[in-house]
Write a structure and sequence with these properties.
alpha+beta; Pnp Oxidase, Chain A; 6-stranded antiparallel beta barrel; 6 strands; globular; Split_barrel_FMN-bd; Nitroreductase family deazaflavin-dependent oxidoreductase
Amino acid sequence: MPSKAATTLLRLPNVLYGVHLGWVLGNRFIQLTHTGRLSGRFYTVVLEILRYNPDTRETIVMSGFGTKANWYANIRSGRAAWIDKGHGPYRVNYRLLETEEAVSVLADYERRIRLVRPLAGWVLGRLAAFDYHGTAADRRRRLVETLPLVAFTPIAEK
């Protein structure tokens, strides 16, 4: 269980989005608003962007708590979802990445975060519950199967 300080720190990005300051987080994070599969209520979570395609506006994120994450289960149930990159929410569809594509996205992400790669590897290893060394075998064998990657694409306005 995270400490009170850690919990507060993890909630800070949601607070920024709540006061329309999500843009200060740059292109590194999105706020996902998802509909509860049982309650029908709206919930929010801030997720790190692993890859963004400006042409298609596809945004790829990881479920850091695996398939047990509430947001992951809620979107899988077919409920409505929106993402906000700091300039207002838009409705999205989702798709789960196949293993090979997920491995490629994760490898590219790790190349881009060279300076903090050791810390990111440590965190990913803790989340996936194994000693992650950033190798292709680790990515393929366990990481992307334990912590699925999800792509969100905007739903065209009618």
